[in-house]
């Protein structure tokens, strides 16, 4: 099978692979890159990505380094154009417009219209679970990156881990967990390889997920099963998937928990008297780590009660409130907005700078007296600072020769909330199975000595 672009990165784009197109900071679109299928209306470009920033024949997106910026096409996109644009992608760092394409510039009205739209550009990005989450076709609510990155580390997902996931939904968590457990050793013992056992009871969603997993070449890592897990549990063809991590994003996770016991258990925690040859879906030799994802506290309460009944320990609940802070320099009044936009206020600014300078001098004098060493500034060197100045504000202050850190205070603002579907995360641990045989084996290995 082809390597998955999510697991085994290549350096350049290739036909029949998934690419994530970045149209803007917040807008991503997944496409499968396709080779030219021959001449279309006299042009050799074939399949084209049409966006509000212009048209991008796939031929201009192929065999270029991932992350390349690509300019929108002009109308004449014949085979000569294809070679030229590929060169442009590699040669030009900051494209401006395609309008200076010399002899190829068309003159008809539709062609001119196309040129007008051709100054846009896109970035062609290598698929990652994070980009897939930002661009996937939503069939359900999805788990977003701030939540799943926390969940995956809490349930100890690492190369080799076997995870049970239900429901699969739109596959956002599935992709992230596949990468987390991928061990990268296709030749290794299949049982030792990491795997995601994903369950979904809604048939059309299951079918879409299954097809997507194959398209993304993840079928060696992810196994999707069409199943109502409340009724039928988590065994695969009657056998244990031997999982040590579980993630339940279900409307009623407590309904599924009795299937995750070490002994066959009925709802409410009672042991099943007739277990038959039932196998626990959990690895008997490892502790199991679970996370359930529920939007309301009543669901959390029911889940916690059932977890306690079934012997899970270390139960706790977390809510992720992810914020991104935008740090900017407030140039001592320069950036104060007025009715006509940003305006400089020279008197205030001069006053503020004078005060800053005198404060600095006092601090420097103090440190000199203490250590006889010059003061070095470290206060902002590690911060991610946006030093941009509003365009309309180009007065003398921008020619200020003072060091940047002396030109104003750093202030921070929270950016608009990151996309996340706020839910409560309940975590718990079920200790590994323990019986007479395990006790004896442990004593033989670590004798207590006396
Ligand atoms: N975690 C997914 C993601 O990141 O894309 C989203 C999961 S979505 C919120 C919940 C899914 O659980 C739905 O697709 C629903 O069909 C499925 N589901 C609900 N009850 C189920 C059950 N008893 N067995 C299996 N799947 C179930």
Summarize the structure.
The chain has 450 residues and is an alpha/beta fold. The protein is 25% helix and 20% strand.
In this entry the ligands are: S-adenosylmethionine
Distance linking N and C termini? 57 Å
**Portion of residues in helices?**
25-40%
Task: Report the sheet-strand fraction.
Answer: 15-25%
SSE run: EEEEEHHEHHEHEHEHEEHEEEEHEEEH
Quote the average pLDDT.
79
The number of distinct helices, counting runs of at least 4 residues, comes to 10
Which overall shape is indicated by the principal axes computed on the Cα atoms? globular
Strand tally is 18
Q: Going across the major beta sheet, what is the strand order?
A: 9-8-7-10-11-18-12
What is the radius of gyration computed over CA atoms, rounded to a whole number of angstroms?
29 Å
User: Largest beta sheet, briefly?
Assistant: 7 strands, mixed
Unreliable spans are 76-117, 336-344, 373-398
- Class per helix and strand makeup: alpha/beta
């Amino acid at each position: 099978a082809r390597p998955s672009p999510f697991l085994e990165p290549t350096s350049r784009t290739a036909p029949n692979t998934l690419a994530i197109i970045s149209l803007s900071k917040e807008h991503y679109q997944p496409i499968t890159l396709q080779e030219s299928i021959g001449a279309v209306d006299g042009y050799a470009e074939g399949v084209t990505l049409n966006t509000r920033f212009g048209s991008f024949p796939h031929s201009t997106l192929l065999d270029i380094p991932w992350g390349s910026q690509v300019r929108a096409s002009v109308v004449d996109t014949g085979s000569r154009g294809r070679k030229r644009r590929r060169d442009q992608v590699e040669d030009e760092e900051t494209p401006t417009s395609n309008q200076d394409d010399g002899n190829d510039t068309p003159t008809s009205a539709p062609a001119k219209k196309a040129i007008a739209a051709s100054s846009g550009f896109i970035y062609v990005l290598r698929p990652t679970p994070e980009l897939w989450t930002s661009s996937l076709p939503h069939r359900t609510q999805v788990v977003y990156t701030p939540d799943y990155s926390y969940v995956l580390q809490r349930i100890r997902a690492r190369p080799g881990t076997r995870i049970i996931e239900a429901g699969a939904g739109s596959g956002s968590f599935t992709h992230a967990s596949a990468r987390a457990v991928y061990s990268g050793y296709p030749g290794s013992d299949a049982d030792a390889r990491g795997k995601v056992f994903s369950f979904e009871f809604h048939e059309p969603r299951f079918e879409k997920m299954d097809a997507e997993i194959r398209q993304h070449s993840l079928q060696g890592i992810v196994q999707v099963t069409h199943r109502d897990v409340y009724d039928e549990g988590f065994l695969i063809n009657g056998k244990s998937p031997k999982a040590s991590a579980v993630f339940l994003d279900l409307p009623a996770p407590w309904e599924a928990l009795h299937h995750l016991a070490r002994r066959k258990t009925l709802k409410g925690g009672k042991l099943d008297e007739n277990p038959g040859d039932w196998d626990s879906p959990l690895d008997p030799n490892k502790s199991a780590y679970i996370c359930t994802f529920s939007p309301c506290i009543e669901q959390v309460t029911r889940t916690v009660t059932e977890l306690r009944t079934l012997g899970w320990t270390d139960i706790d609940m977390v809510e992720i409130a992810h914020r991104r802070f935008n740090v900017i320099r407030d140039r001592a009044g320069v950036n104060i907005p007025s009715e006509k936009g940003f305006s400089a206020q020279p008197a205030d600014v001069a006053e503020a700078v004078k005060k800053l300078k005198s404060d600095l001098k006092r601090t420097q004098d103090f440190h000199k007296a203490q250590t006889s060493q010059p003061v070095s500034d470290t206060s902002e060197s590690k911060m991610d600072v946006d030093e941009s100045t509003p365009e309309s504000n180009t007065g003398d202050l921008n020619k200020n020769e003072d060091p940047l850190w002396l030109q104003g205070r750093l202030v921070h603002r929270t950016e608009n909330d990151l996309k996340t579907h706020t839910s409560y995360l309940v975590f718990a641990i079920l200790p590994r199975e323990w019986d007479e045989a395990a006790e004896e084996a442990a004593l033989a290995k670590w004798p207590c000595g006396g």
